[in-house]
Write a structure and sequence with these properties.
This protein has helices at 19-24, 40-45, 51-55, 80-88, 96-101, 122-129, 213-220, and strands at 34-38, 65-67, 92-95, 111-114, 119-120, 134-136, 144-149, 154-159, 192-195, 198-201. The protein has 221 residues and is an alpha/beta fold. The protein has one domain. The longest helix has 9 residues, at 80-88. The chain is globular and about 50 Å long. Mean pLDDT is 88; it is low at 1-11.
């Protein structure tokens, strides 16, 4: 029998060849004017006994209510690579829960970066889409509506992603839904397109932002 080999971990770090870039984008003198919203709800939705077990018909509707994670675990579906890179570059972070509980937390910043925040609450959706300067770094963000129950430390899918019926696509009927771009993981022809309250990237940037100087610089602007 051939031994199976699996990747159990990866290492992401800053590249010494990019030292001049790190100076340009403020790594050594980062100001607290930009915040990244980590997709905690999305992290949980992709977990075991989560939404995707329901979508795959491996579980009934009980899997549409899942526990809110106690900690950040930067998995691929929750923009794990970008989370690590932006953390290494000293960006401030908040989570879905922080924004849902206190939408005004964003007001202390000049710019908000949204990752693959696929599952968000109505309050979080309103706070982000009404903020004047948002960089939507991942396609398929702001896609499905969930409702949090902090007494029970859970959240539940309310609408979107084909639920409660197949006609429910984007749970907010958001006119700027750009989910069609999420499968372009090469990101060779990346561009930012303007929307009412900021800019959107036209591809999935997880791998590219580890080495693309121009993309890292554009994110910082």
């Amino acid at each position: 029998m051939t031994e199976q080999k699996y990747i159990t971990s990866i290492t992401i770090g800053l590249d010494p060849k990019f030292l001049d870039l790190y100076y340009q984008i403020g790594f050594f003198n980062r100001t607290d004017d930009t915040v990244v919203v980590y997709p905690l709800f999305t992290q949980a939705a992709y977990g075991e006994n989560g939404f995707y077990d329901y979508y795959r018909k491996m579980c009934d509707s009980k899997c549409l209510t899942v526990n809110i994670p106690a900690k950040v675990t930067p998995i691929y579906q929750a923009s794990g690579r970008a989370t690590v890179m932006l953390h290494l570059l000293h960006y401030d972070f908040v989570t879905d829960v922080d924004v849902d509980k206190n939408p005004k937390i964003l007001e202390q910043y000049k710019k908000v970066i949204v990752l693959h925040n696929e599952y968000v609450t109505q309050k979080e959706f309103d706070a982000i889409t009404n903020f004047p300067n948002v960089l939507y770094l991942y396609p398929n963000s702001m896609y499905a509506k969930v409702q949090a129950d902090y007494d029970n430390n859970t959240f539940t899918l309310i609408r979107g992603h084909g639920y409660p019926d197949s006609s429910a696509d984007n749970g907010f009927d958001w006119k700027f839904d750009n989910s069609q771009y999420e499968y372009d993981i090469q990101c060779n022809n990346w561009q930012f397109h303007s929307v009412d309250n900021g800019k959107m990237l036209n591809c999935w940037p997880s791998f590219r932002m580890e080495y693309d100087r121009s993309l890292l610089y554009a994110i910082s602007q």
